[in-house]
Amino acid sequence: MEWFMKGKGKPNGKKPPTEEKKHYLDAEYTKVRVVDFELKELVVLPREIDLNEWLASNTTTFFNLINLQYSTISEFCTGDTCPAMSAYSTTYFWYDEKGKKTKCTAPQYVDFVMSSVQKLVTDEDIFPTKYGKEFPNTFDSLVKKICRYLFHVLAHIYWSHYKETVAMDLHGHLNTLYTHFIVFIREFNLMDPKETSIMDDLTEALCTPLPPQNHVTER
């Protein structure tokens, strides 16, 4: 299964939609985290661990955490509120196993993502858990595909459901999860920077260390 993204801006001279305010960039929100240590320390490959095992462990963890984060706002993400899987000026389309392009609602897209990733991470031939079993030659490309899917979900949560996340006081968890994920994919070059560029402003805000005296954490 594949995905496709398309920007709303068209080369026919039409003006793009008026840019909406990105509330998730407000300083009062970006300063809220749930950890107060350097996340890069969590993603660096330990000397005694195999690279593929490390990628498998972290990828599975991020899948579970992002799935959980989405579940907190899933009741607000419906076919009516989110008729397309969008984030800022980008719309994501789904391609099924036969290569058929599908424009689906956001909840449908997320369901496709979570179902397909669940299938991959629980496949013993792809994510082996038994000692001595080799990872497939395609493992690196599959991890990159999973990371793209998961990034789309995070981007959609920020763009379409940040208000609900703040209302539930879960924005600190979301900020920490997003930062941890970005640091991870950067450490192992798992995504092309162009694919994550729509969230570069947030990435810069969250990956910039906060002054100790202004650091705010959630309990």
UniProtKB/TrEMBL annotation:
Pfam (any one): Mob1_phocein
Xref: PANTHER family: MPS ONE BINDER KINASE ACTIVATOR-LIKE MOB
Residues the entry annotates as binding Zn(2+): C77, C82, H156, H161
A GO molecular-function annotation: kinase activity
Gene: mob2b
The keyword Metal-binding is annotated on this UniProt entry: yes
Annotated spans, Disordered: 1-20
Keyword Protein biosynthesis: no
Organism: Danio rerio (Zebrafish)
Protein name: MOB kinase activator 2b
Sorted UniProt keywords: Kinase, Metal-binding, Transferase, Zinc
